Amino acid sequence: MSKRREARLRAAALAVAVLSGAFELIAVVFGLLNIDVAASLGTTAFHPNYTTTLIVMLVGLLIAWRHPAHLVAWVFLATGLSAEILSAFWSYGFYGTVTAPGRLPGAGVLSWVASWGFVFPASGFFFALLLFPNGRLIGRRWWFVVWLIVAGMCLIAAAYALGRESQNVFLHGPLLAAQDLEGLVRVGGVLLSAGLVGAGASLIVRYRRARTEERLQLKWVVYAGCAALVMVLVSVFLFTQPQPLRSLFQPFTLAPLLIPIAAAIAILRYRLYDIDLVIERTLVYGAVSATLAATYIAAVVLLQALLRPVTGGSEVAIALSTLLVVALFQPIRRRAQDAVDRRFYRARYDAARTIDAFSARLRGDVELDSVRADLIAVIHETIHPAHASVWLRRPR
Fold first, then answer.
1. Predicted confidence (pLDDT) at residue 47 exceeds the cutoff of 80
2. 65 within domain boundaries
3. Which of 48, 97, 193, 394 is the most buried (most CB within 10 A)?
4. Calpha distance 99→350 (Å, rounded)
């Protein structure tokens, strides 16, 4: 690619970022104007689905600045821009139809567009997964997955556009019956689900064909996707709980942002080789946290039952349970580390065991030839070199 074209693409990416920021500013201004009315109606003055997508757009800009022609960067830029546009439409429409009816032109139309347009930026991650990490599809056959996603998006958007009477100001009521709209949503959901499965399958196919560096890139995104899934499940659980636990679910709604951030790390190759360490630490400390939490709860319940006749309270049981958990931390962490290494990092686990055994033999071995033979055997077993030899300097 010529430097002139790279400069043009960078300028275009920067223009998209500036335009997204302008629409975000519009959304914030009208959102502030809508605060009082929205509070009286029990709703929010800011669109809940699109304000965080500014981060997605910034991630796309960062990738595009280093790799101007990378399609994943432009998918993120398009996702962020469309989301910010719809956010501005929603705040503008709310002001022109609820806060100050009739004062703004086209407020009803923009409110209607915002009611169904959310489907398109919400599906942007599907395309990013299909194109990750090199910005190209695996082959022509995978265009079928792209069309599945596009068809699902269009069907769901059509159902919301033609059937939401409360926000369908432009068309003055639904044009299709309720059962037809439910059918469109179901069919669109099935197609989008099939597209998501296809995108996941493309990552699996890429991983099986990839070499070391590309496999590390794919590990970053898969790790972020698994972490995002866990956070979404936690947010759903917290949302069903009473206050104050319900108020804690808000930070977990940022879980989808982990995917573009991980994609940026992988594409830009920033600390790319740290993913194995991150995965290992997550597995180890996740297992340790779950074990300690279960131990703490069981200890509190058991000690309260045993000590209630003596102490009459729960403070002693809580204190003893805390001390027990602190004492068990290191033993449980070591056992979890061994279990993770043995299950997921078998080669490193076997190498460490071999070196430990060699160190134990070395303490009592005084024959130089025996030590040399053992050392070469350990090197062959752990490192697997093409050739290994030991040179010993003879004493004068």
1. no
2. yes
3. 97
4. 68
Domain membership of residue 268 (yes or no) is yes
Number of domains within the chain:
3
Q: What is the pTM of this model?
A: 0.72
Distances (CA, A) of 65 to 11, 62, 147: 9, 5, 29
Q: Can you tell me whether residue 169 is helix, strand or coil?
A: coil
Q: Which residues contact 324 (CB under 8 A, 6 or more apart)?
A: 295, 296, 299
* Distance from C-alpha of 153 to C-alpha of 148, rounded to nearest angstrom: 9
- Residue 310 lies in domain: 285-332
Judge whether residue 247 has pLDDT over 70: no
In this structure, the answer to whether residues 225 and 372 fall within a common structural domain is no
Q: How far apart are CA 389 and CA 56, in angstroms?
A: 53
Q: What is the DSSP letter of 142?
A: G
Q: Looking at residues 97-113, what average pLDDT do you find?
A: 84
Task: Give the integer Cα–Cα distance in Å for 282 and 226.
Answer: 11
Taking Cα atoms as reference points, which of 53, 72, 70, 55 lies closest to residue 10? 70
Tokens found for residue 69: 């022609």
Work out the burial of residue 178: count CB atoms within 10 Å of its CB; fewer than 13 is exposed, 13-18 middle, 19 or more buried.
exposed
Percent helix / strand / coil, the chain, rounded to 5: 80, 0, 20
Rounded Cα gap, residues 218 and 68, in angstroms = 21
CA 173 to chain centroid, in Å, comes to: 38
| Residue 340 domain-assigned (yes or no) | no
Q: How far is 16 from 68, CA to CA, in rounded Å?
A: 13
